Amino acid sequence: MVKHIVLFKLKESLSTEEKQHVMNDFKAAIEALPATIPSIRKIFVGLNINSDEKWDICLESEFDTLDDVKAYAIHPAHVAAAGILKEAKQDRACTDYVF
After folding, report:
1. Count of alpha carbons within 13 Å of 19, Cβ hemisphere only?
2. Chain centre to alpha carbon of residue 96
3. CA distance 5 to 81
4. What pLDDT, on a 0 to 100 scale, did the predictor assign at position 37?
5. How far is it, in rounded angstroms, from Cα 98 to Cα 92?
6. Mind listing the domains of the chain with CATH numbers?
């Protein structure tokens, strides 16, 4: 199994309300993906509640193989969901590991 974890930082120029709206929309879109992408074994989006920390969003997902992660990354439904953050994203960090 492969764990795929992605952290996102939103732009500081966004208001609290704008950030919350983007985060909620992103969470809903990502967590709906298993209905379209069956290779997703588990997926969850956590929204940071501590504004003193750097990252605003944590996406945690599980796949059978790294090839499944790579196919997920280019799947049109994932690309559309990721597009929700396009204008709001300042930074991104990612790791994939076997567990």
Report:
1. 18
2. 13
3. 16
4. 98
5. 21
6. 2-98 (3.30.70.100)
The per-residue pLDDT for 76 is: 98
The tokens for 2 are 């492969």
Per-residue pLDDT of 42-90, as tens digits, reads: 999 999 999 899 999 999 999 999 999 999 999 999 999 999 999 999 9
Task: Please state, in angstroms and rounded to a whole number, the distance separating the CA atoms of residues 75 and 34.
Answer: 12
Residue 51: predicted pLDDT: 85
Report the alpha-carbon distance of residue 60 to residue 54 in Å, rounded. 17
Of 19, 3, 20, residue with least CA distance to 11:
19
Can you tell me the distance from the alpha carbon of 6 to that of 43, in angstroms, rounded to the nearest whole number?
Answer: 11
